[in-house]
């Protein structure tokens, strides 16, 4: 898997399964993810890299706030709902 800081990822396991997040840190076999609502940028969730899948999208982390992050991730979830 090629996950970098700023990559948009989808959770494949856990209670947040199916949700979109952005990778804010990578260390070892774990990725720190945030969604701006439940998991803020200041306190990201540590998740095993095996339990997420990359979407292939990358967003800029410069001047990113929780509000902007929620807006970007909301676009991903609405696009998924439109696809059959």
Describe this structure in words.
Helix content is 20%, strand content 35%. It is globular. The protein has one helix at 66-82; strands spanning 7-11, 20-27, 30-34, 45-48, 52-58. It has a single domain, classed as SH3 type barrels, CATH 2.30.30. A hairpin with a 2-residue loop joins strand 2 (20-27) and strand 3 (30-34). The chain has a five-stranded antiparallel beta sheet with strand order 4-3-2-1-5, covered by helices on one side. It contains one helix and five strands, in the order βββββα. It starts with 6 loop residues before the first strand and ends with a helix. With 84 residues, it is of the alpha+beta class. The longest helix has 17 residues, at 66-82.
List the helices and strands and how they pair.
Elements (H helix, E strand, L loop, with lengths): L6 E5 L8 E8 L2 E5 L10 E4 L3 E7 L7 H17 L2
Antiparallel strand pairs: 1-2, 1-5, 2-3, 3-4
Spatial ordering of strands, largest sheet: 4-3-2-1-5
Beta-strand residue percentage: 25-35%
Annotated CATH topology: SH3 type barrels
The largest β sheet comes out as: 5 strands, antiparallel
The outline comes out as globular
Low-confidence stretches: none
Rg: 12 Å
What is the residue-mean pLDDT, rounded to a whole number? 91
Q: Report, as a whole number of angstroms, the end-to-end distance.
A: 25 Å
Provide the CATH architecture: Roll
Count every helix, treating DSSP H or I runs of 4 or more residues as helices: 1
Strand-pairing-aware structural class: alpha+beta
Order of helices and strands: EEEEEH
Total DSSP E strands: 5
Helix content: 10-25%
User: What is the CATH first-level class name?
Assistant: Mainly Beta
Indicate how many domains the architecture comprises: 1
């Amino acid at each position: 898997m090629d996950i970098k800081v700023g990559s948009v990822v989808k959770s494949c396991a856990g209670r947040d399964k199916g949700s979109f997040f952005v990778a804010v840190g990578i260390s070892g076999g774990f990725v720190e993810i945030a969604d701006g609502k439940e998991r803020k940028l200041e306190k990201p969730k540590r998740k095993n890299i095996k339990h997420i899948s990359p979407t292939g999208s990358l967003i800029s982390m410069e001047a990113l706030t929780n509000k902007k992050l929620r807006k970007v991730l909301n676009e991903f979830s609405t696009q998924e709902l439109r696809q059959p």
